Amino acid sequence: MDKIAVFPGSFDPITKGHESVIKRALPLFDKLYIAIGINADKKDFFPIEKRMEWINQVFKDYSTVEVIKYEGLTVDLCKKIKAKYILRGLRTSADFEFERSIGQINKKLFSDIETVFILTAPEHTSLNSSIVRDILKHGGDANQFVPEGIDLSA
Ligand code: ADP
């Protein structure tokens, strides 16, 4: 049976940290959905279509990667697309505490699901999308923090 995984997040925007986690997870799964959550309570920085376009561009040569958007519970998406694995990245102990509770609750909601964690590469530990957004809000150049080929100002 195919091993199908979902990597859920906001990816607002995708960073080199996300890219590294995704590339390192690819050998583990037959199919990896990068799933952008639509959250009505959270204000987007970049439009969802732009975020999808960038991720598609980064992974255009990777046939097992597909970018999708979704609303609602991640476990409901997993049931719908027959994914048994949720992929998450771990940077710090704070990430671990946050992920532990979500992972354990997701397991209660859908007993077939397993959350798989990939440790961040040391050079990406302090990187997150919100820092990238802050740099941009203050007129800085954040292109070094996002995958090669993405131009945040375009
Ligand atoms: P969320 O909106 O849930 O915070 P993000 O888009 O920021 O989602 O992140 C999605 C996933 O990517 C999370 O598992 C997060 O831990 C992981 N991630 C984000 N930045 C990094 C990084 N620099 N290194 C490793 N994993 C990361």
Quick recap of the structure?
By secondary structure, this protein is an alpha/beta fold.
- C-alpha-based Rg, rounded: 15 Å
CATH topology value: Rossmann fold
- Which CATH top level class fits? Alpha Beta
Q: What number of structural domains do the residues give?
A: 1
Placed side by side, the strands forming the largest sheet appear as 3-2-1-4-5
Order of helices and strands: EHEHEHEHEH
> Given the C-alpha coordinates, what overall shape results?
globular
Q: In total, how many beta strands?
A: 5
Distance between the termini: 41 Å
Bound molecules: adenosine-5'-diphosphate
Helix content range = 25-40%
Low-confidence spans: pLDDT under 50, at least 5 residues? none
Report the average pLDDT across residues: 96
CATH superfamily: HUPs
Beta content: 15-25%
Largest sheet: 5 strands, parallel
How would you classify the helix and strand content by structural class? alpha/beta
Number of helices: 5
CATH architecture annotation:
3-Layer(aba) Sandwich
